[in-house]
Amino acid sequence: MTPEITVLALAGLLQGIQFATFAVPANLELGTKVTMGPRDKEPQLSPRLGRLHRALSNHFEGLILFTLAVVVVTLGDASSGFTATCAWIYLLARIAYVPAYALGLVPWRSVIWATGFAATMLMILAALFS
Length: 130
Fold this sequence. Notes:
This protein has helices spanning 3-30, 32-35, 47-75, 81-102, 108-128. By secondary structure, it is mostly helical. The chain is built from 5 helices and no strands. The chain has one domain: Membrane associated eicosanoid/glutathione metabolism-like domain (Four Helix Bundle (Hemerythrin (Met), subunit A)). It is found in: Membrane.
């Protein structure tokens, strides 16, 4: 297994942890009647819970691009020390992003996001030009 695929697997586990980090407080705050219901109306979330929800959604979006980068690197047989480092930077940025967003750390949340995004784009570029 390439380092990039290992990091992708860990990023998938991180997504699960992020889901639990949001779901447990959501059930406590909103109650199971709301969280298990059809949610025809968007429930009002506390500021921190709203940030956890948006961080979860953001990771789904970022994970799509990162998965694409890993596939391009892997199928293009372009795995290298550089792409492996980029993959690890992406994962570390995603780990740091959750508390930065939950705590409302401005501008660090955006800096952390940009770091993970740049690492993903650099992986794709490295695969294209290898």
